[in-house]
């Protein structure tokens, strides 16, 4: 009997569905377990992982208590003169690429592929240079007053952010602005900026930015967009050192599960769109005032 082909999309989707049903979505895990701090998982060469791989490695690090941000293959560890400890279990990450194939008409066509491979955290490896074991900084312990550095960051994005007594945080697509209750009404500034990060991810989806709302407009679009904003807020929080505020709504969770169970590539697309949203926000925040005015 032939061995069933390994389905990367289904494997990852099943793992993340199981974590959501257990109440522990992987994008909420960089701040659980005690050992790990706020960090973006990185390859052996220091380059950050992106998209779905961030979620998979966050989940593994939290469940295993890994604190180091670096991940590498068995061979990469050996090339660095190090050794994976006997009995250590690897984590799954995926690589996307294209291969050239010839069509029936004799033309060359690029065909996309997705392949799984195995990596180990630096905490599982002996003999690496000390820099691989560097511990990340913990998130800032913010009070209830505004943080000047974060205020400046969000202002540089160019998003129109209104503050008023209405006790809701939301992005209004019609008027293209974000509404936030006053920071003084939040239990902590961390909660305020985490919530703002979530709404800012929604803001990136407008037609004049990433045009996400039109591209994803089926019956599960609302749940998909909330999934993008939640994952994006967590990625952004890691970048700016603030733990985001997660929505605990059961309806959101149910919507995510429906979307993912009906399409085993939905979580890959959500993670990809979240990465694009964060890249856009960081790009806008990094532009000079003169560039934004132009």
Automatic annotation (TrEMBL):
It comes from the Bacteria. This is Antirestriction protein. Residues 149-272 form the Polyvalent protein metallopeptidase domain. Residues 7-120 form the N-terminal domain. GO terms for molecular function: single-stranded DNA binding. The keyword Lyase does not apply. Keywords: Plasmid. Coiled coil: none annotated. InterPro entries: Antirestriction_ArdC, ArdC_N, MPTase-PolyVal. It comes from Salipiger profundus. The keyword Cell division does not apply.
């Amino acid at each position: 009997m032939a061995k069933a082909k390994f389905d990367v999309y289904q494997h990852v989707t099943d793992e993340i569905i199981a974590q959501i049903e257990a109440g522990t979505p992987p994008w909420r895990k960089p701040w659980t377990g005690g050992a790990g701090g706020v960090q973006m998982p990185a390859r052996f060469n220091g380059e950050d992982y992106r998209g779905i791989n961030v979620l998979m490695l966050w989940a593994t690090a939290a469940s295993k208590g890994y604190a180091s941000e670096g991940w590498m293959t068995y061979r990469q560890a050996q090339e660095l003169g190090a050794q994976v400890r006997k009995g250590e279990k690897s984590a799954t990450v995926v690589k996307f690429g294209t291969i050239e194939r010839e069509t029936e008409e004799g033309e060359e066509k690029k065909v996309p592929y997705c392949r799984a491979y195995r990596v180990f955290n630096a905490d599982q490896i002996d003999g690496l240079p000390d820099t691989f074991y560097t511990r990340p900084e913990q998130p800032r312990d913010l009070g209830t007053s505004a943080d000047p550095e974060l205020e400046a960051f969000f202002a540089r994005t160019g998003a129109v952010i209104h503050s008023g007594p209405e006790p809701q945080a939301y992005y209004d697509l019609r008027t293209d602005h974000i509404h936030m209750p006053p920071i003084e009404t939040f239990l902590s500034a961390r909660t305020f900026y985490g919530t703002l990060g979530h709404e800012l991810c929604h803001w990136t989806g407008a037609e004049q930015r990433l045009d996400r709302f039109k591209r994803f407009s089926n019956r599960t679009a609302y749940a998909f967009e909330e999934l993008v904003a939640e994952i994006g807020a967590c990625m952004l929080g890691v970048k700016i050192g603030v733990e985001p505020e997660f929505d605990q709504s059961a309806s959101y969770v149910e919507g995510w599960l429906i979307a993912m169970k009906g399409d085993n590539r939905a979580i890959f697309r959500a993670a990809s769109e979240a990465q694009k949203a964060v890249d856009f926000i960081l790009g806008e925040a990094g532009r000079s005032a003169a560039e934004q005015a132009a």
